[in-house]
Amino acid sequence: MDYKKMKIALDRANERVDKCEEEILEMEMKNNAIDEALSYQSKKSDSLENDNKIFLARIEELEIMMIARNHEIVTAKQQLVQITAVNKDLSESVQNLNIKLAKATHDRNERGVIIKYLQDLVDGRPTHARG
Fold this sequence. Notes:
This protein is mostly helical. The protein contains two helices and no strands.
Protein backbone atom coordinates (compact mmCIF):
# COMPACT_ATOMS: atom_id res chain seq x y z
CA MET A 1 0.00 0.00 0.00
CA ASP A 2 2.75 2.34 0.65
CA TYR A 3 3.84 1.59 -2.87
CA LYS A 4 0.45 2.69 -4.27
CA LYS A 5 0.48 5.90 -2.25
CA MET A 6 4.00 6.61 -3.36
CA LYS A 7 3.02 5.90 -6.97
CA ILE A 8 0.06 8.32 -6.69
CA ALA A 9 2.24 10.96 -5.04
CA LEU A 10 4.89 10.48 -7.76
CA ASP A 11 2.28 10.77 -10.51
CA ARG A 12 0.94 13.97 -8.94
CA ALA A 13 4.46 15.36 -8.59
CA ASN A 14 5.14 14.50 -12.25
CA GLU A 15 1.92 16.29 -13.24
CA ARG A 16 3.01 19.36 -11.30
CA VAL A 17 6.47 19.20 -12.93
CA ASP A 18 4.81 18.93 -16.38
CA LYS A 19 2.55 21.88 -15.56
CA CYS A 20 5.53 23.93 -14.34
CA GLU A 21 7.45 23.06 -17.51
CA GLU A 22 4.48 24.25 -19.59
CA GLU A 23 4.33 27.48 -17.60
CA ILE A 24 8.09 27.94 -18.05
CA LEU A 25 7.72 27.44 -21.83
CA GLU A 26 4.88 29.99 -21.93
CA MET A 27 6.99 32.46 -19.95
CA GLU A 28 9.96 31.90 -22.27
CA MET A 29 7.73 32.52 -25.31
CA LYS A 30 6.38 35.70 -23.71
CA ASN A 31 9.92 36.74 -22.79
CA ASN A 32 11.08 36.13 -26.38
CA ALA A 33 8.15 38.18 -27.69
CA ILE A 34 9.06 41.00 -25.30
CA ASP A 35 12.72 40.80 -26.39
CA GLU A 36 11.67 41.00 -30.05
CA ALA A 37 9.41 43.98 -29.34
CA LEU A 38 12.21 45.73 -27.44
CA SER A 39 14.66 44.99 -30.25
CA TYR A 40 12.19 46.39 -32.80
CA GLN A 41 11.62 49.51 -30.70
CA SER A 42 15.37 49.96 -30.27
CA LYS A 43 15.93 49.71 -34.04
CA LYS A 44 13.04 52.08 -34.66
CA SER A 45 14.43 54.50 -32.08
CA ASP A 46 17.88 54.33 -33.71
CA SER A 47 16.30 54.96 -37.11
CA LEU A 48 14.33 57.94 -35.78
CA GLU A 49 17.44 59.30 -34.11
CA ASN A 50 19.34 59.00 -37.40
CA ASP A 51 16.47 60.67 -39.28
CA ASN A 52 16.49 63.44 -36.68
CA LYS A 53 20.24 63.99 -37.16
CA ILE A 54 19.75 64.20 -40.93
CA PHE A 55 16.84 66.60 -40.46
CA LEU A 56 18.86 68.84 -38.12
CA ALA A 57 21.80 68.85 -40.53
CA ARG A 58 19.46 69.90 -43.36
CA ILE A 59 18.03 72.68 -41.17
CA GLU A 60 21.58 73.93 -40.51
CA GLU A 61 22.29 73.90 -44.27
CA LEU A 62 19.12 75.86 -44.94
CA GLU A 63 19.99 78.38 -42.21
CA ILE A 64 23.43 78.91 -43.79
CA MET A 65 21.81 79.33 -47.22
CA MET A 66 19.30 81.79 -45.76
CA ILE A 67 22.08 83.84 -44.14
CA ALA A 68 23.97 83.92 -47.45
CA ARG A 69 20.79 84.91 -49.33
CA ASN A 70 20.07 87.67 -46.81
CA HIS A 71 23.63 88.94 -47.28
CA GLU A 72 23.10 88.96 -51.06
CA ILE A 73 19.85 90.91 -50.59
CA VAL A 74 21.54 93.47 -48.32
CA THR A 75 24.39 93.86 -50.82
CA ALA A 76 21.93 94.27 -53.70
CA LYS A 77 19.99 96.91 -51.73
CA GLN A 78 23.23 98.79 -51.01
CA GLN A 79 24.15 98.66 -54.70
CA LEU A 80 20.67 99.88 -55.64
CA VAL A 81 21.04 102.84 -53.26
CA GLN A 82 24.44 103.65 -54.80
CA ILE A 83 23.10 103.35 -58.36
CA THR A 84 20.11 105.52 -57.48
CA ALA A 85 22.42 108.18 -56.04
CA VAL A 86 24.64 108.08 -59.13
CA ASN A 87 21.59 108.29 -61.40
CA LYS A 88 20.27 111.25 -59.43
CA ASP A 89 23.62 113.02 -59.63
CA LEU A 90 23.85 112.29 -63.35
CA SER A 91 20.31 113.50 -63.94
CA GLU A 92 21.00 116.74 -62.04
CA SER A 93 24.23 117.25 -63.98
CA VAL A 94 22.43 116.76 -67.28
CA GLN A 95 19.67 119.15 -66.22
CA ASN A 96 22.28 121.76 -65.29
CA LEU A 97 24.02 121.17 -68.61
CA ASN A 98 20.69 121.52 -70.43
CA ILE A 99 20.12 124.87 -68.73
CA LYS A 100 23.62 126.09 -69.61
CA LEU A 101 23.24 124.90 -73.19
CA ALA A 102 19.86 126.54 -73.51
CA LYS A 103 21.34 129.84 -72.32
CA ALA A 104 24.41 129.51 -74.51
CA THR A 105 22.60 128.41 -77.65
CA HIS A 106 20.39 130.91 -79.43
CA ASP A 107 19.45 128.71 -82.34
CA ARG A 108 16.32 126.78 -81.40
CA ASN A 109 16.92 123.82 -83.70
CA GLU A 110 20.46 123.25 -82.46
CA ARG A 111 19.34 123.59 -78.85
CA GLY A 112 16.59 120.97 -79.38
CA VAL A 113 19.05 118.52 -80.94
CA ILE A 114 21.48 118.89 -78.04
CA ILE A 115 18.73 118.53 -75.42
CA LYS A 116 17.33 115.43 -77.15
CA TYR A 117 20.82 113.89 -77.29
CA LEU A 118 21.38 114.49 -73.59
CA GLN A 119 17.90 113.24 -72.65
CA ASP A 120 18.47 110.06 -74.70
CA LEU A 121 21.78 109.64 -72.91
CA VAL A 122 20.12 109.95 -69.49
CA ASP A 123 17.25 107.61 -70.43
CA GLY A 124 19.64 104.99 -71.77
CA ARG A 125 18.38 105.18 -75.35
CA PRO A 126 20.82 104.90 -78.27
CA THR A 127 22.31 108.23 -79.18
CA HIS A 128 23.61 109.40 -82.52
CA ALA A 129 26.33 111.97 -82.25
CA ARG A 130 25.72 115.02 -84.37
CA GLY A 131 28.62 116.98 -85.65
